[in-house]
Write a structure and sequence with these properties.
Elements: E1 2-5, E2 12-15, E3 19-21, E4 24-26, H1 32-37, E5 46-52, E6 58-64, E7 72-78, E8 80-87, E9 98-104, E10 110-113, E11 117-123, E12 128-134, E13 143-145, H2 166-169
Length: 180
């Protein structure tokens, strides 16, 4: 696996090393040892998948607070997404900034997102399937989010937004002084 730094401390784009032949390919998509070599202690507590049916839909920006904060490794198993991580660590020099990467079934890239960052994505195709590896169990009372269109972040989503949950539409703006 190859790790590429982004503009946010601790956020990596991970490129699996493909072994190909006439049958197709084989690749490693998780290696605790290789993550540890980057200073990442990642023990999988939960693995989830999502299907987003419509191109242009946005899911996010999600994170868990306090004692249930989680690291994530996300990948797109089917389709293409514009994947985004936003730095919500108040003591970080990149607070409020974002890193983005297209993830797709073709490029097989993954993104590692540490605690203290929110995550979301926009689908660039119909029928996108995402996979999430998390270091913490889902906790509804610790679940939180930030607005996808918060001016503090300045995210330029590639497509017009076609679909979003009411919950994701209603997160408060950090730009208006919301505290974590």
């Amino acid at each position: 696996m190859f790790f590429r730094k982004t503009g946010l401390e601790g956020v990596y784009v991970i490129e699996p090393e493909l072994k190909t032949d006439g049958r197709g390919f084989f690749t490693r998509t998780f290696c605790k040892k290789e993550l540890a070599e980057k200073g990442i202690d990642f023990t999988i507590a939960q693995m989830n998948q999502s299907l987003t049916k419509r191109k242009g839909a946005v899911r996010g920006m999600h994170y868990q607070k306090d004692l249930k904060a989680e690291d994530k490794i996300v990948s797109c198993l089917k389709g293409r997404v514009y994947d985004v991580a936003v730095d919500l660590r108040r003591d970080s020099p990149t607070y409020g900034k974002f890193a983005a990467q297209e993830l797709s079934e073709e490029n097989k890239l993954m993104m590692y997102i540490p605690k203290g960052l929110a995550h979301g994505f926009q689908t660039l195709a119909n029928g996108c399937v995402m996979q999430y590896l998390m270091t913490e169990y889902y906790s509804p009372e610790h679940s939180s989010g930030a607005r996808w269109d918060d001016p503090l972040f300045g995210i330029r989503w590639p497509l017009k937004v076609t679909d979003m949950s009411e919950k994701d539409k209603s997160w408060p703006l950090l730009a208006e002084g919301r505290k974590k």
